[in-house]
Amino acid sequence: MSWAAFVTPVVMAGALWLMTHSPYSLAFAALGPVAAVMSLVEGRRGRGRESRTAAAERAGELARLRERLEAAHEAERRALLRSTPGAAAALDGLDGTRLWKGEDAVVSLGLGTVASAVAVSGDAREADELELQRAAGRLECAPVVARPESGVAVCGPEVLARAYLRGLVVQLYSSLPPGRLAPPELMDAAGRALGEWDWLEQLPHHTAPAGGVVPRLGVFADARLVPPGFTAVVSLSSPIVAAVEVFPSGAVRGGGSWGGAVPRERELLEAAVEPELVSRANAERFAATLASRAAGLGLGAASRSLPSEVAFGDLPAAGGLGLRASIGRTLHGIAEVDLVSHGPHAVVAGVTGSGKSELLVSWVAGMVSGRSSDEVVVLLVDFKGGTAFQPLAVLPHVVGVITDLQHGEAARALSSLSAELRRREAELARLGVRDVAEARGALPRLVILVDEFAAMIDAFPDFGGLFTDIAARGRALGIHLILATQRPAGVMRDALVANCPLRLSLRVQSEADSRWVVGTDAAARLSASTPGRCILSIDGAATEVQIARTTSADLGELATATGRHAPPRRPWLDPLPAVLTRGDLPAEAGPQVVGLADLPDQQQRAMLQFRPEEAPVVVLGAARSGKSSVLRLLAESAGVESIVVGADREQAWDAVEAAAERCEDAGAADASPLVLAIDDADAICARLGEEYAVAWCDRLSRILRDGPAAGVYPVVAAQRQTGPLRGALRLARETVLLRQASRQDHVLAGAPAELWDEGMPAGGGIWRGRRVQFLAPGPHLETVDGRRVSEPGEPPTRVPLVPARGSATVLVSRAPARVVSRARAAGLPAEAVIDLTQPPAMGALTPEALLADGRLPTGVLLVGDPDAWMGRWSLFATLKARHPVVFAGCDAADVRALTRSRALPPPLAPGSGAGWLIFADGRMRRCVLEAA
Predict the structure, then answer these.
(1) What is the mean pLDDT of residues 864-878?
(2) Across the strands, what pairs with 734?
(3) Residue 356, annotated ligand binder?
(4) N or C: which end of the chain has fewer CB within 10 A?
(5) How much helix, strand and coil, in percent to the nearest 5, is found in the chain?
(6) What residues does the FtsK domain cover (predicted)?
(7) Which residue ranges make up each domain of the chain?
(8) Could you read off the pLDDT of 587-640 as tens digits, one per residue?
(9) Does 352 show up as a binding residue in the annotation?
(10) CA-based nearest residue to 295, from 284, 281, 307
(11) How big is the chain by its Cα radius of gyration, in Å?
């Protein structure tokens, strides 16, 4: 509290005392001090609560941060152990798939504490925060990595030093294959004199490759004896602990430079490491095993002929930063291809039985070997049924297999690729980089592999331009194409082929096909007895290759080695669900949302909304396509009063007639809006008959044309547009096309042929040019939030067979005798019945007398058949102007003939026993004669 708030009550109390001289006014002087003390106490209590809450929140945040830090360190440690597993893992993996599948010439000097790539940012001030930041930068029990080509010196007792150095050799030569690694430069004169290193001669790494890796290793009694040129020095004092010094590039010891940089090395934070020792016997077995494996592959020296079969498990992983993959054997070693450096795209040709599918499977396996789904994903497109790529489905890198068996799904997936191009462009722009190579793993490379490219273009001609666009822009976006077909000539556009410098041709039918693909006719001369033999052309240089055969077991091991990762993002959106409920909609979906629209070209889904102002709408669908449910859904979601009309012809007639009359009412626009939903309109027309159907469709046309202006919003569902209904439905503003009975019906209804789907689920269809899925129907209710959603036809008027006293009933019936009998049985006296079909009895009341008097002493029933009344038509016209006329057991022709009116009476349901009641003003209603 401020000093002003403290002093003000004292001053005011003094002023009051001066004016009133009342001692009570001085009590106000105490308000300031009391309020100040209370405010101070409450402030301290509030600050105490806030401090405790903040401390608890801070402790929780630090605990969660420590958990995240431990998880990040564990993931980082696992990644380092995978890249440099150590000597024991190398010996255990001699018979596995990891042999010769390393990416770089690095070794683990042992497990120790190195600098972590994880960092905790922020301005740390408290001790626990500083400790957390310090712990984040330390990675314990991680490999201490060094490059042998930059020199590794091992110091200590000779027995221990040589055992340790054998471990480094085992790591290195099991990681890289012959051709990428040379024999080591070993400084151990005493050991060579004793034959300690004779087993190195068995290694298949006989010659140094041009520009390849030459390890530099040495054994020394003391670290002071290590000459310049070694960047790592390991000092062994016992079999379980060693001290390591790793010198970076530019460090000077004893006046000499210590060699090159170690880019993959983490900064060593503690000198102590756990060494791995390997006995000479194990080293000799290791060298013999490598020699045997290399001999089986023809490695280590040039072979005179290619093997007829190569196993994928015997190939080393190509590794590297691009998409280098080992796919087979050449006369000089392993055949490696790289879509990044040799591509960016490739063409593969080969006739049936030449091994084309096997080549593609092995290529994919080689690309994903040693790489996670964060680095590369593969989309497979197989237009010969999908069986060729089925084994690849186990790989976590495969984001989907598109086949020609699901035509609609293939179309939407392929069209999504345009959206994938735009998405990748936006992501690179957001990262501020020019291509995916600079994105540092933010975007995985996407390889699109198409088998039977010609068949795909035949099915989707428009996609030729899409693939040409991908070929032109794919390199920077990290999208690569492998297009395989039997005869690429004449199928692939020149602009597409120009971006495919990597070519592979298995056996083809003609020399012209071979020259078109690889620039030589060698592929046409390949033997049919050796499937998998192909000509590889990289920038015009052709090489003969025997493609490796990949088994399901190989792919299973690759999937297991990749480990569990989050599923990769698919380059297209998943299809719409077959059953869509309210729970599947986004949280912001309102009651007007009736479904979802599929936008594959944008990789999005849009919410479908229906408002009455969008009517008139027509829903067309075959049987069991969900049209009745969609109709009711649109009616219920409109938010206004709704009437759903079923296939009952009386109900349909009355509802349409009432709506048509409202359209003619000048003041109808001020009335409450109404959605008129008519189901099975074509079935209604069939039940009405030709004459009634024409009249009903005429009224329906009036509603479709003028209804919205009068506040009537029609929604009509039908299976087919036939007869007079066709002209009426053409007035609709929009058409919802559900599953049709055939592709022809689908196209004739105006929908794109590529969106035809024979297996489209109920509620699925085409609306506004998009594939849509409507919500599944919920429980049917007669009212929703007080609004009618269904309404029966107008009930018939009850007409007593015994007229009331003083009234007369004029009745036309084709069976007047039956009516008279019923009337007498109901208690009508004989003198009150006038039957025009019978001669009048003596003294009986005549119609003329009835008309002359005008006063009826009792109720009178005048009955006759249509012919009798036509014979006395003037009498009928006079009675009709005074009394209602009932037609029972007659048809519409009788009504129109006697009333001389062109208007059709309302239709009657068969077997209902109803008739028509014609009022004096010409109105017609259904009626039922009641005996009592």
Answers:
(1) 85
(2) 617
(3) yes
(4) C
(5) 40, 20, 40
(6) 332-515
(7) 3-75, 84-292, 302-562, 582-788, 797-930
(8) 778 778 888 888 877 778 888 888 888 888 888 888 888 888 888 888 888 878
(9) yes
(10) 307
(11) 46
What's the confidence (pLDDT) of residue 534?
93
Place of tokens 């009234």: 807
For 636, the token pair is: 């219920």
Residue 367 — φ and ψ, nearest 5°? -70, -40
HSE-up of residue 847 (Cα within 13 Å, Cβ side): 24
Tokens of 623: 């049987």
pLDDT tens-digit readout, 383-433: 776 677 888 888 988 888 877 656 566 667 777 788 888 888 888 888 888
Nearest to 715 by CA among 623, 627, 797: 627
CA distance 928 to 332: 101
Four-CA torsion 144, 146, 151, 153, nearest 10 degrees: 10
Residue type, 115: A
Q: Are both 302-562 and 582-788 of the same fold?
A: yes
CA dist., res. 111 & res. 28, Å (int):
78
322 annotated among ligand-binding-site residues: no
What's the CA gap between 178 and 173, in Å, rounded? Answer: 9
The whole-angstrom separation of Cα 150 and Cα 250 is 12
d(CA 373, CA 325): 15
Q: How far apart are CA 752 and CA 766, in angstroms?
A: 9
**Rounded Cα distance, 702 and 840, in Å:** 50
- Alpha-carbon dihedral of residues 852, 856, 859, 865, nearest 10 degrees? 0
Q: Of 466, 521, 460, 523, nearest to 493 (Cα)?
A: 466
Query: 2.40.30.170, 3.30.70.1140, 3.40.50.2300, 3.40.50.300: which CATH number matches 582-788?
Result: 3.40.50.300
Q: Are 576 and 773 in contact (CB under 8 A)?
A: yes
Residue 357 labelled as part of a binding site: yes
- The pLDDT value recorded for residue 2 is 58
> CA-CA-CA-CA torsion for 130, 136, 137, 140, nearest 10 degrees?
120
Token pair of 450 as six digits: 């198409």
Angstrom distance (rounded) from CA 531 to CA 533: 6
Q: Extract the tokens encoding 715.
A: 């929604």
Nearest to 327 by CA among 544, 563, 557: 544
Q: Is 351 annotated as a binding residue?
A: yes
DSSP strand E in 247-345: where?
252-253, 256-257, 272-273, 310-311, 324-330, 333-338
Task: Show the tokens assigned to 161.
Answer: 């030093």
Q: In this structure, how many other beta carbons lie within 10 angstroms of the beta carbon of residue 52? A: 10
Find the helix or strand (DSSP H, E) in which 690 lies. helix 690-706
Nearest one of 153, 164, 175, 167 to 105, comparing CA atoms = 175
Indicate whether 169 pLDDT > 90. Answer: yes
Distance, CA of 512 to CA of 164 (rounded, Å): 59
837 annotated as a binding-site residue = no
How many angstroms from the chain centroid is the CA of residue 796?
A: 54
Better pLDDT: 550 or 573: 550
Return the CATH fold of 302-562: Rossmann fold (3.40.50)
Could you tell me if residue 119 is left (phi over 0), alpha (psi between -120 and 50 degrees) or otherwise beta?
Answer: beta
Residue 817: in which H helix or E strand, if any? Answer: helix 816-825
Residue matched to tokens 């016997």? 281
The per-residue pLDDT for 348 is: 93
User: Which residue would you say has higher pLDDT here, 506 or 8?
Assistant: 506
pLDDT tens column, 193-238:
788 888 888 888 766 554 568 898 999 988 888 888 888 999 998 8
Pair of tokens at residue 265: 């090395």
Question: For 829-843, how does the pLDDT look when each residue is reduced to its tens digit (9 = 90+)?
Answer: 877 788 888 887 766
Helices 892-899, 873-882: axis angle to 10 degrees equals: 90
Query: Is residue 906 reached through a cis peptide bond, with omega within 30 degrees of 0 on the bond before it?
Result: no
Q: In DSSP terms, which residues pair with 644 in a beta bridge?
A: 677
